[in-house]
Write a structure and sequence with these properties.
Blueprint (H helix, E strand, L loop, with lengths): L1 H27 L2 H37 L17 H34 L2 E7 L5 E4 L1 H7 L10 H4 L1 H9 L5 E8 L2 E14 L2 E10 L1 H42 L5 H27 L1 H4 L6 E4 H18 L3 E6 L5 E4 L1 H18 L7 E9 L2 E8 L6 H6 L15 H11 L3 E7 L3 E7 L1
Parallel strand pairs: 7-9
Antiparallel strand pairs: 1-2, 1-5, 3-4, 4-5, 6-8, 9-10, 10-12, 11-12
Length: 439
Amino acid sequence: MKKFRRLILLRAFLLFVALTFFAWLLLKGEYLYAVLFFPFCLWLLWFTIRSQIRTYRELQDFAEAAKYRDFTRHFSLTHASVEVKPLRSAFNDINDVFKSISSDRETQHQYLQKIMELVDTAIVSYEEKTGKMMWMNDYFKKLFNIPYISTIYALNKKNKTLYEKIVETEPGDNKLHTLDTAEGPIKLQLYVSSFQTAQGNFRLITLQNINEALDETEAKAWQKLLSVLTHEIMNSIAPISSLADTLKNRLDSLPYTEELEDIRTGTETIKSRSEGLLKFARTYRTLNKITQPDLDSIKAADLFENLYVLLEPSIIKKDIELNIILKNPSLELKIDINLIEQALINLLLNAIEAVKDVANPTINLQAIDDNGKIQIKVTDNGIGMSQEILDNIFTPFFTTKKSGSGIGLSLSKQIMLMHRGNLFVSSELGKGSTFTLQF
């Protein structure tokens, strides 16, 4: 910098001396020498101006590079003039600093982006004013089967319910919703936050799948409740049943009278209902008998064949069309065969019941591989279910059948949770239902 300052002062001094000498020649009347000396003054003036212009161009080039964030440019020092060399050196130092900052930011961005893609939480971000979609992670795309949308408003056509829930939710709110997804209706925790940058105001939406956590907690709660209930019922009813049986035997040995006949009838009723309650308690105890699945490999084709052989008489008798759909005959599952067969039998029996009063009763049994996740679907064209029934369909004791125990679907869901999977249902009144075993 000192050298550059000395050079500027030297050029200014030479220019001053040259112009002073030129003026002195004119005053002395030495016009010939003045004319001969004048080109030297012009050259010296041009040389000084050119130096300043060169410096200005260097500054302009650097400003242009900074404007477009082009910090990859390198200013050569090899053939640089004395006055430009310090500038180029400073520019290179600044570029190195900005490149380092830019590299760190890019690394942080990629790191954050990778984290966002790995988490099992659907994340979207959009600009509030225009609705322009700024970010949508892979889990969101996969969960709702939406590969791309340019604005948040386009979501209204893809998934109207999801769009309405997002728009209705105020920043800071945290709500639980059951939404339709590619995996079926699942419970999602919806959280909306708002933030502001120099580019505008934005909203960040997160949708966390808490379906499995809720199902597991709910299943454990029901297991504990059932354990207490069945224990108390059996302890209370067993003595009553025994006493009723003893009274009945003694009454049978007595001579017939009208008064004794009424007592005998009452005693038989008590005994019958007591035995029914004991049978009821023993049935529900099966919910607590399952511990851990005994996993084994089986082809889906073999599993479906076993089920068909078992249910064939009932299907033929009721004139039901059972379609087995298996695009990949070599598709294999690692499951507890007995438990999964039991779950599928429950679902198929429910499907048979659902189609008994419809024209052209049809049941489809299908196995598909959805990006490494195997699904088994049981679909019928039966009477379907209302939303109220769907909300309670997996609740123990809940049933819509006159002779049903309400244990089948609860047991089937528990079997799937034990396989680290889940059981989903979708249904529409008058059109049928689909149960999906998601492994």
